[in-house]
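Progress note, project year one: complex with zinc ion.
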Amino acid sequence: MPAHLLQEEISSSYTTTTTITAPPSRVLQNGGGKLEKTSPYLEEDIRPEMKEDLYDPSYRDKEGPKPKFQYVWRNIILMSLLHVGALYGILLFPSCKIYTYLWVAFYYFASALGITAGAHRLWSHRTYKARLPLRLFLIIANTMAFQNDVFEWARDHRVHHKFSETDADPHNARRGFFFSHVGWLLVRKHPAVKEKGALLELSDLKAEKLVMFQRRYYKPGVVLLCFILPTLVPWYFWGETFPHSLFVATLLRYALVLNVTWLVNSAAHLYGYRPYDKTINPRENILVSLGAVGEGFHNYHHSFPYDYSASEYRWHINFTTFFIDCMAVLGLAYDRKKVSKAAILAKIKRTGDETYKSG
Ligand SMILES: [Zn+2]
Ligand SMILES: [Zn+2]
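Model obtained:
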């Protein structure tokens, strides 16, 4: 069967995809403020349990001088050491054993999915539902990726969407490429991030035992799954040298996954077209999509954060959607939210930058 037919088959015949067409007619009130009934960001969103990632255009930065950066030296030193180790890993990379390449590829994709399919599309945005075996895999994969626990990741990410590109956005891209890429992790949070983050509705995360379990045992979990396991397996099972195991399979692989994820916050907020909404900064960036397994369609994603594909399309440069669809075939993922074509075209007409190519 040709790939596009197979994709249609899998996308449509397992009937749990919810197509989003009818706008809810209620005013939402929550900790971060009130979204007006007329806000275009409320249209077509039918997730009953979650509204905390919808853009609030009414929020403005406070006037006056900006607070000075307060450096977190521990993070600066550890991040520098990691990247020096990863650079050495690049030198060792050509001389790895073949199984080590396979192991690195497996660890790269699994930990990336722990972020994209897990922390991002499932837990931050609730764009689909997952049964326990899939959530178990995702929480383990997420711990392999070591980017803060799911609870903290989702809280930071919801304020990023809600107060995008203001002081309350943890990686505010208006503060430049470096700040939105990694700099934000090396300084204390802006007071507005703490203030708005504390007001967010996070009860869905607090109620999920698996998420709270990961948070409780996060440190030992990370030491084991992000560092010890990926180093010991190649060394023990196929006699890889210890330096290759440590510098390539662990440090280089970890730094790579970190950087491609960060590119979503930096490059995809700066470079690319805005076919869906030219009034916001996030952009469509194919290169970021390639590295970040489908997360570079960022103008679309900020326009429709409730779409499980984080893109207008499904399997187009989007390994994460392919993975979620495969899980749906197995019955492990369901209730995938997809925005209707009509709603997308209406948005393009209303606010697009006229670069949209249909077809
Ligand atoms: Zn973003
Ligand atoms: Zn998002």
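Confidence is low (pLDDT under 50) at residues 22-40.
The two ends are 21 Å apart (CA to CA).
No further modelling is planned for this target in the current period.
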